Amino acid sequence: MSGASLEPRDAHNERLLANVHPPGWKNPEARGTYNLAVLGGGTAGLVSAGGAAGLGARVALVEKHLMGGDCLNFGCVPSKSLLRSAHARAEAARVTGEAAPDFAAAMERVRRLRAQISHHDSAARFKGLGVDVYLGEGRFTGPRSIEVGGQTLRFARAVIATGSRAGVPPIPGLAEAAPLTNETLFSLTEAPRRLAVIGGGPIGCEMAQAFQRLRTQVILLEVAGRLLLKDDPEAGRIVLEALRRDGVEVSLSAKISRVEARGGEKVIRFTGADGKESEARADAILVAAGRVPRVENLGLEAAGVAYDPRKGVRVDDRLRTTNPRVYAAGDVCSRHQFTHAADFMARTVLANALFLGRQRASALVIPWCTYTDPQVAAVGTPEAEAAAQGVETQAFLQPLEGVDRAVLDGETEGFAKVWVRKGTDEIVGAVVVARNAGDMIGLYVLAIQRRLGLKALAGLILPYPTQAEAVRKTGDLYNRTRLTPAVQKWMGRWLKWRRGGD
To answer: For 261-296, what is each residue's pLDDT tens digit?
Structure first.
């Protein structure tokens, strides 16, 4: 999307634009050499700029489009608002009977809440923090300079934080069918009667479930044999069943050959798992097939910064590029394309770029979550990946059907699973599938980050009843493995001695 425009042009989007790309904004006059120049006003860029200014640095921030980046405008904020409306409707229908959906009201709520939150990322706020905010297309003109709006900004250090965009697969006819992406999806004011979703990753699964629950008939096409490829296979199976229960038509191992636009109808031709050719007909198509780093038109060659069009900017473990004066953070250089990852990568950059720090990006413990119902949250090294690396592990699984609160809530399809380095209680990774898995995974994150070990989680005293008890119970499961027959025999002798030998 180019230019500062959002559809529909209602009061909410006007309020949003007034914050994130104010009409008539006048760029400041460049002043001397900046301690830090930041390209990109998404999460990584804003944290870098605001943090550096707060530490007394002279900072320039350059944003081409909308302050707040994808997270505020086209990602986390609008998608989770829409999911809340969709899940609330489903919950009301489950508890009290049929609940009529109001798609227009749900999307109006998305725009209203997005605008309400946007002041946090506003150009005016960052100007007030002492940041020189430049709205316009910036590009490197040398190893220590950036050009924007006819001005040259000189810097001692710079951060590339331009993020990523939705990737559109090179499927014949797809571009001509004008598919939706996350950048255009939240501009809808009327629900399509039928929606085809290409991609069974987090975004595809979340939006498929949301639109289905708001009474759009959804078909989801995934080229792989299961959903959520980066997550535990059992977690993907549970999400698959949840989508199908809601009415989503899911086709796995679907190889799309072409897309045809016939009037207002889109026809997707694909071969399914059975090898037979099929057609999916829809009124709109959503592409959710991965992200592509924004590296084009940045003048990276002039700056001496190496990059790959698919993998992004090349960085070392301290997030330095091949130009030691230039760093990168967020989606443009990371396989962890999450807002919280961008946040903490930016903090790593601040320490290393401004204060000669030696912080390592690989030391960050980064969880992730897919906000379907139920949610899937994970942290650490996936079990299969650990095995491929030659790490022997032992897994402990606590089904939600054994957790009282889950039984009371009627939400027993899920689990907490953790795997430790064999012979120890060192946590290698964990996954939680539950209604509030994104909140529950934090207990495992803290344990890994603080090197507490799984046995420490058995000592957690949690309010009763909560579903987080599933996490504590995995600690109990580990402790039971320590109660070997030899230990039991020794304890029996000890207790017999304590009661006087009978």
So the answer is: 988 899 999 999 999 999 999 999 999 999 999 999
Predicted confidence at residue 112, as pLDDT, reads 98
Q: Can you list the residues of the chain whose pLDDT is less than 70? A: 1-5, 98, 501-502
Helix (H, G, I), strand (E, B) or coil at 391: coil
Per-residue DSSP letter, 492: H
Predicted confidence at residue 501, as pLDDT, reads 66
Q: Which of 247, 295, 255, 290 is nearest to 274 (CA)?
A: 255
The tokens of 20 are what?
Answer: 């994130």
* CA–centroid distance for 500 within its chain: 61
374-485 has which CATH code?
3.30.390.30
Cα–Cα distances in angstroms (integers) from residue 499 to residues 82, 485, 489, 490, in the given order: 63, 21, 16, 15
Q: How far apart are the first and last CA of the chain?
A: 83
Judge whether 467 and 434 are in contact, CB under 8 Å. Answer: yes
Ordered by start, the domain boundaries in the chain are 11-166+292-363, 175-289, 374-485
What is the C-alpha separation between 7 and 180, in angstroms, rounded? 13
- Alpha helix positions (H), 289-415: 300-303, 339-355, 383-388, 404-409
Helix (H, G, I), strand (E, B) or coil at 210: helix
Q: What average pLDDT does the structure give for the chain? A: 95
| 3-state SS, residue 398 | strand
Domains 11-166+292-363 and 175-289 share a fold: yes
What CATH architecture is 11-166+292-363?
Answer: 3-Layer(bba) Sandwich (3.50)
Closest to 346 in 3D by CA, of 140, 119, 122, 55: 55
Q: Where are the beta strands (DSSP E) in 355-441?
A: 368-370, 375-380, 393-399, 415-421, 427-434
What number does CATH give the domain 175-289? 3.50.50.60
pLDDT of residue 51: 98
Cα(343)–Cα(358) distance, integer angstroms: 18
Q: What is residue 4's predicted lDDT score, i.e. its pLDDT?
A: 61
- Report which of 206, 213, 232 is spatially closest to residue 377, judged by C-alpha positions: 232
Q: CA-to-CA distance for 451 and 406, rounded, in angstroms?
A: 28
What's the token pair of residue 494? 């000890």
Question: Per-residue pLDDT tens for 133-164?
Answer: 999 999 999 999 999 999 999 999 999 999 99
8 Å CB contact between 17 and 124? no
**Alpha carbon distance 232, 288 (integer Å):** 20
* CA separation for the pair 103, 73 (Å, rounded): 19
Q: In whole angstroms, what is the distance from residue 419 CA to residue 432 CA? A: 12
Q: Please spell the DSSP secondary structure of 62-96, one letter per residue.
A: EESS-TTHHHHHTSHHHHHHHHHHHHHHHHHHHHH
